[in-house]
TrEMBL record, chain A:
Highest rank taxon of the organism: Bacteria
GO biological process annotation, one example: regulation of DNA-templated transcription
Keyword rRNA-binding: no
UniProt domain HTH luxR-type: residue ranges: 303-368
Source lineage: Bacteria, Bacillati, Actinomycetota, Actinomycetes, Propionibacteriales
Any GO molecular function: DNA binding
Protein known as: LuxR family transcriptional regulator
Keywords for the protein's UniProt record, in alphabetical order: DNA-binding, Transcription, Transcription regulation
Coiled coil: none
Automatic annotation (TrEMBL), chain B:
The HTH luxR-type domain, residue ranges: 315-380
Protein name (Swiss-Prot/TrEMBL): GAF domain-containing protein
InterPro entries per UniProt: GAF, GAF-like_dom_sf, Sig_transdc_resp-reg_C-effctor, Tscrpt_reg_LuxR_C, WH-like_DNA-bd_sf
GO molecular function: DNA binding
Keywords: DNA-binding, Transcription, Transcription regulation
Length: 375, 382
């Protein structure tokens, strides 16, 4: 690990002991500032930059005391300004999302997203784009530096544009992998989008996907070019949390809308039913022609027959019996002997628990057509 | 590498948190032990008195900075009399400060990482399709991914706190079952009661001195220190998360509070969205069942409606040909009655019935009763 070699052997007596420690402290403070990635102009950060020593060249103890005191002050500044920064950013992200969610329409939300993100994440410029099929279309953007030439050029580039999600571009990779990317050295990065980069004039930027439902519906680009701040891992965490929140807000909007729409559809359907019912009740009495018979559907024949216990042959006999046919007529019709018909009739009467064929017909009429015989 | 991509959301779901692990890297800890030894030598103080409990207790930047200050106050006193010793003490103090800066840097990175893991957790939970499963899964996620030892979720209903679900990393959770859905009245100045109005996450540093719900927090839960965050839906506190580092001695911190707070806000969004989805389905199911019930209950609700006795065209033809008495007899024949039964029913002689039946058969142009019935009922071919 690199930190090991920065520790000198304790209590050594070399001549530049103070200067060496000064360098180490300075390097650690720089590293911490880079990690926290606060705007350079943020208040209370002066103590994190070591001032030139005041003590004269040969007053080594004076220099040591000065460096100790300066480091103490720096550590206090770290405790008060740097360590709370990620927590405050997380808090601001949630407040910003609450503001975005307060928007009544999709347009309100689209408009609120860039400015709220600038505030929450200390960014200078945020671009919110729609993702449509294989391209991304800038929709809304916000900058803290509205008057500059760079802003004007940037506005001209994104206004009304549609960029292709070309293979190998960072944007395409983000849409595909659904991850948030931090580009820390844009000039060296081959996957960046050249026209946007040359106009945007930023060293580092972050791109996050906005996922709603199953799909990536938007992209958020953020940078801090105007203040010259270099973005760090902390910024990616912030942007990622915000982008996830925006996705949820878009989903929520769609659901609220669907719920209201469904409610209206139900109300409309009920009102239509009410109107139809009223129309039937209020219709004038007239000598209407008989409506056409509904065409018999084939599935009727396939309906399971009531469990009457009759065999297929008995059912045939019964159908004729119901029509008033005599045993002789039934025998003739089915080309069987009259004795066979008598035997069938006997079984039918027994299965129907009736004494004679008149009763059988009567029962059939009472119970309706549930004996597998069409009326 | 200039492009830094976070791991995909489909990351393997595996618990990584080891309860009780030190949050300070081994390298820094051994450096702290080494420097403490040097300080104890230089100041002639026992190392245990300089950093009580080290290394069992956490090495913190504050503890290390305090050691550095002890060295410097000794060095300042020595500056006039023993410049060489003063110089050694100053250099030792600076080495301690460098270690303290390293610890601060480590803490800063750790905070970013915890917030990042919090966002990862929420992204994973986004895939859960219904609100009940979400509530059931969320505590384990908090413990496994967000660096807590225990997590519980409770609902709040009309000023009552109702524990709902818990997940403990390395401790027996059976006591919690007795508390599930037990209504705990929220009053006084407990953090949970204040949460209802303040709606901000809270940190309880020491449960022995703070006004807490002793029964569940201290007696059952044995929590020394914890954080609690509200679940807010449409401006109302509808639930709580409680987290601590049990069974380790680690106290809850303001970082724990803010991480849990951020998590709770994200979860509230996830939850509300699932509730909306479920409402759409419920609305649809409700209107279906209401209409179905209405149609089914109409005949009962209306009671008897005057309806004419149904008459078929076949019967109409029969009626046109028969006398009133013959119709009466035919109806009984259709009902399956014998001549004797008809005679007794109509209080006439059986011979009279026979005569009526003969007339009926003649008028209908049929030869037996069965045919007559079939003709009267319309089952006979025309």
């Amino acid at each position: 690990m690199g930190t090991l070699q920065l520790y000198p052997a304790p209590l050594e007596v070399e001549a530049n002991a103070v200067a060496l420690r000064r360098e180490i402290v300075d390097a650690k403070l720089r590293a911490m500032l880079a990690t926290a990635a606060l705007p350079p102009a943020a208040p209370g950060l002066d103590d994190l930059r070591l001032a030139e020593p005041l003590a004269s060249g040969d007053d080594e103890l004076g220099k040591l005391d000065e460096l100790f005191a300066a480091t103490e002050r720096a550590m206090n500044a770290v405790t008060e300004k740097l360590l709370p920064a990620p927590l405050l950013a997380a808090r601001r992200v949630n407040l910003a999302l609450d503001h975005v969610q307060a928007g009544a329409t999709l347009t309100d939300v689209m408009r609120a997203v860039p400015s709220e993100l600038c505030w929450a994440g200390d960014f200078d410029r945020v671009l919110f784009s729609r993702v449509e099929e294989s391209s991304w279309v800038p929709a809304t953007w916000y900058t803290t530096d509205p008057g500059s030439a760079a802003t004007v050029a940037f506005g001209q580039l994104v206004h009304g544009s549609r960029f292709t999600l070309s293979n190998g571009s960072i944007e395409a990779e983000i849409v595909r992998r659904r991850v948030t990317a931090l580009v820390t050295d844009a000039a060296e990065e081959t996957r960046t989008f050249p026209p946007l980069l040359s106009v945007a004039e930023c060293q580092s930027y972050i791109v996050a996907p906005v996922v709603s439902g199953e799909a990536v519906v938007g992209l958020l680009h953020a940078d801090a070019a105007a203040s010259g701040r270099r973005l760090a891992e902390a910024d990616r965490v912030t942007l990622r949390a915000f982008a996830d929140g925006v996705g949820l807000i878009l989903e929520r909007m769609a659901l609220v809308e669907a719920l209201a729409k469904q409610r209206h559809l139900i109300a409309d359907a009920l009102a239509a039913a009410e109107r139809a019912v009223a129309a039937i009740a209020d219709a004038p009495v007239s000598l209407a022609p008989r409506p056409p018979e509904p065409i018999a559907t084939s599935h009727r024949a396939e309906e399971p027959l009531a469990h009457d216990g009759l065999t297929a042959r008995e059912r045939e006999v019964f159908a004729l019996l119901v029509s008033g046919a005599t045993n002789a007529a039934i025998a003739d019709r089915l080309t069987v002997s009259e004795t066979t018909v008598k035997s069938h009739v006997k079984h039918i009467l027994r299965k129907m628990h009736v004494g004679n064929r008149a009763e059988a017909i009567a029962k059939y009429l009472r119970d309706g057509n549930n004996l597998g015989v069409s009326r | 590498m200039s492009v830094d991509l976070a791991p995909p959301r489909t990351a393997v779901f595996a618990p990584t948190a080891r309860p009780g692990r030190s949050r300070v890297s081994g390298h820094h800890r051994s450096r702290a032990v080494e420097l403490t030894g040097l300080v104890s030598e230089a100041l002639s103080v026992r190392a245990e008195d300089l950093m009580p409990g080290t290394p069992q207790l956490e090495v913190t930047p504050d503890r290390v900075a305090t050691l550095a200050r002890s060295c410097v106050s000794e060095a300042r006193a020595d500056a006039e009399t023993d410049a060489a010793r003063a110089r050694d003490l100053y250099l030792l103090a600076l080495d301690l400060q460098v270690l303290a800066l390293d610890l601060q840097q480590e803490e800063l990175v750790l905070r970013n990482r915890r917030l990042g893991e919090c966002a990862d957790s929420l992204a994973r939970l986004r895939g859960i399709p219904n609100s009940q499963d979400l509530v059931d899964a969320v505590c384990q996620e908090l413990v496994s991914r967000c660096d807590f030892g225990r997590a519980t979720i409770s609902r709040v209903d009309q000023g009552m706190w109702l524990p709902r679900k818990a997940y403990f990393a390395a401790a027996d959770a059976s006591w919690f079952d007795d508390w599930i859905d037990q209504a705990i009245p929220l009053h006084g100045h407990t953090p949970e009661a204040r949460l209802l109005t303040e709606r901000r996450p809270a940190l309880v540093l020491d449960t022995t001195t703070a006004p807490v719900h002793r029964d569940i927090i201290v007696e059952s839960g044995q929590s020394q220190s914890y954080v609690v965050a509200p679940l807010i839906s449409r401006g109302t506190v509808v639930g709580f998360f409680h987290c601590d580092h049990f069974p380790t001695q680690r106290r809850a911190s303001d970082v724990d509070r803010d991480v849990l707070g951020a998590f709770a806000e994200g979860l509230a969004r996830l939850h509300e969205r699932l509730v909306l989805m479920e409402r759409i389905d419920a609305q649809r199911a409700e209107v279906g069942s209401v209409l179905e019930n209405a149609v089914r209950s109409l005949p009962e609700a209306l009671g008897a409606v005057p309806r004419p006795r149904e008459i078929t065209p076949a019967r109409l033809r029969v009626l046109a040909e028969l006398t009133a008495r013959e119709v009466e007899v035919l109806d009984l024949v259709v009902g399956g009655a014998t001549n004797r039964a008809i005679a007794s029913r109509l209080v006439i002689a059986e011979d009279t019935v026979k005569s009526h039946v003969k007339q009926i058969l003649r008028k209908l142009g049929v030869t037996n009763r069965a045919q007559a019935i079939a003709r009267a009922a319309g089952t006979a071919p025309d």
